[in-house]
Amino acid sequence: MKSRILSISIALVLFSCATKTPSVPATTTENATAAKTVELTPELVVGQNLYDNNCAKCHKLYEPKKFSQEQWKPILVRMQKKAHLDDTQMASISNYITSQL
Asked: Which residues belong to the signal peptide in this entry (predicted)?
């Protein structure tokens, strides 16, 4: 009886200490994200600043990838009037968001 309990205990310890294989290595995920990131040009930085500073006044900022380009169009049209932005500013914001999709 003691040998059976000892054998079970050893098996449990060995099983709990066994290494687990990760499903996706972190470096692979980081490289995939880095590959999709677009370097911001000065024009896109202007759009990002406008987005960050004007849109965050009234609500939380959404990640550009949260919506598709087709979904962003009516959102930006609706928000332009509320944020009191001219067409040039909206074009900058739209270009920034499109670059991040």
From this structure: 1-26
Cα–Cα–Cα angle for 96, 73, 43, nearest 5°?
A: 20
Tokens of 19: 């290494």
Average pLDDT of the residues in 1-21: 63
Angle, helices 69-83 vs 87-100, to 10°: value is 150
Helices within the chain (DSSP H only): 2-17, 26-36, 42-50, 69-83, 87-100
Task: Report DSSP state, residue 58.
Answer: T
Give pTM, 2 decimals.
Answer: 0.59
Tracing tokens 């914001």 back to the chain, one arrives at 93
Report residue 76 CA to chain centroid gap. Answer: 20
